[in-house]
């Protein structure tokens, strides 16, 4: 029998299974575990959106939609972005509907980067962008910039250092804000200052704004406002409307750039399910404030979790958005964050995510997702306190 596996794409066999998903599977088999690992809202999709999906099916909207997305959805997206954030995109030529932001990232990287190009990623950040976590980056050099000593924010000085070192090879800057895993949010001035470093250079700015509606302490800021012609903007319905299972993401970019990204989308997906697009259209068009009560509840949970962890000796930058808290493991506990999370879930039935999953700057940290109920947060803190007390004995 021929061993065909060895003839498959080179390098793929060396890609390890995602450690976040691997641990989630492990923790999921432990009874009565408090899970601070989930990266999705624990709320239900608003009823008016669910009804729109049902109506779409009842109306036999079961055929192929236009490849870039239904015009109704693209128009709703354009109106939403203009109304909420002052972002201007032509729905006919500058908006693309994808299978979640995951596909948005894939399409964009495939369409914009060539072997030898450099992609700059401030870390800690969601691992999809990293070279060892993604099969899409082959031939692209990912340069991670550790932000753990700058309050988990990329500075203009750090960005300039990368440009000085790698020169014309730098082709993309990846920005995610509010950020997974830290919950940090940039001010508009901070984004303006970063934009100034790459303005009028042949560098794309991939701006992942999927958590844009979950800003707690300031209006949402965006690099698009200061660098429109170089920004590739991403958003979607997963977080703000608790629609992770609907798998609708959005890419917005100037016409000529979007045209190339859409070519990848056409080859990979063709188009998204029409009823899911109709549901997303309802979200963007008639659910502009649906995230307000959810955001208020997340903020309450953030405060309780933050204060509880600080009392236990964890050091945390207080999150300004999303629903994650990135905490430094106290010095008297196991500092190998991977060993720590497995021991914690085994001994205390509390599941958190290892900070090293988010690359440089993450070692020795753990990520707490507070997309869990308030009673669960309080129980998790109680178990954590007991665990730490037993460690000292």
TrEMBL record:
What SUPFAM superfamilies does this protein map onto?
A: PLP-dependent transferases (SSF53383)
- Keyword Cell cycle tagged: no
Q: Which Gene Ontology terms cover its molecular function?
A: transaminase activity
InterPro entries xrefs: Aminotransferase_I/II_large, AspAT/PAT-like, NHTrfase_class1_PyrdxlP-BS, PyrdxlP-dep_Trfase, PyrdxlP-dep_Trfase_major, PyrdxlP-dep_Trfase_small
Q: Which UniProt keywords apply?
A: Aminotransferase, Pyridoxal phosphate, Transferase
Family matches, as Gene3D superfamilies: Aspartate Aminotransferase, domain 1, Type I PLP-dependent aspartate aminotransferase-like (Major domain)
Q: Which domain of life is it from?
A: Bacteria
Q: Does the keyword DNA damage apply?
A: no
What is stated as this protein's family in its record? Answer: Belongs to the class-I pyridoxal-phosphate-dependent aminotransferase family.
Protein name per its UniProtKB record: Aminotransferase
Source organism (scientific name): Lactobacillus xylocopicola
Origin organism lineage = Bacteria, Bacillati, Bacillota, Bacilli, Lactobacillales
Task: Tell me the gene name.
Answer: araT
């Amino acid at each position: 029998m021929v061993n065909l596996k060895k003839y498959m794409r080179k390098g793929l066999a060396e890609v390890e299974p995602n450690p976040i998903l691997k641990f989630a599977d492990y923790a999921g088999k432990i009874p009565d575990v408090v899970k601070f690992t989930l990266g999705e809202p624990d709320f239900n999709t608003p009823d008016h959106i669910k009804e729109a999906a049902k109506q779409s099916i009842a109306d036999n909207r079961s055929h192929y939609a236009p490849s870039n997305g239904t015009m109704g959805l693209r128009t709703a997206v354009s109106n939403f972005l203009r109304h909420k954030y002052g972002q201007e995109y032509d729905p006919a030529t500058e908006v693309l509907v994808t299978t979640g932001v995951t596909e948005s990232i894939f399409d964009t990287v495939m369409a914009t980067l060539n072997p030898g190009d450099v992609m700059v990623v401030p870390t800690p950040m969601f691992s999809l962008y990293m070279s060892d976590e993604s099969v899409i980056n082959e031939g692209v050099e990912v340069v991670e910039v550790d932000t753990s000593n700058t309050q988990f924010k990329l500075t203009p000085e750090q960005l300039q250092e990368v440009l000085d070192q790698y020169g014309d090879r730098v082709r993309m800057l990846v920005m995610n804000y509010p950020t997974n895993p830290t919950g940090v949010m940039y001010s508009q001035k901070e984004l303006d200052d970063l934009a100034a470093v790459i303005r009028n250079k042949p560098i794309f700015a991939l701006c992942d704004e999927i958590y844009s509606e979950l800003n707690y302490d300031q209006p949402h800021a965006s690099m698009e406002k200061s660098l429109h012609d170089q920004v590739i903007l991403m958003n979607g319905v997963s977080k703000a409307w608790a629609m992770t299972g609907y798998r609708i993401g959005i890419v917005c970019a100037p016409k000529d750039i979007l045209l190339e990204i859409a070519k990848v989308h056409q080859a990979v997906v063709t188009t998204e399910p029409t009823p899911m697009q109709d549901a997303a259209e309802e979200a963007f068009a008639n659910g502009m404030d649906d995230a307000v009560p959810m955001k208020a509840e997340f903020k309450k949970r953030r405060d309780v979790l933050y204060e509880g962890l600080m009392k236990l000796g964890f050091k945390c930058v207080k999150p300004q958005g999303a629903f994650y808290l990135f905490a430094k493991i106290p010095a008297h506990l196991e500092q190998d964050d991977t060993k720590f999370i497995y021991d914690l879930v085994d001994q205390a039935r509390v599941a958190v995510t290892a900070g090293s999953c988010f690359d440089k700057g993450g070692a020795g940290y753990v990520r707490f997702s507070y997309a869990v109920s308030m009673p669960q947060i309080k129980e998790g803190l109680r178990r954590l306190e007991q665990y730490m007390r037993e460690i000292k004995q």
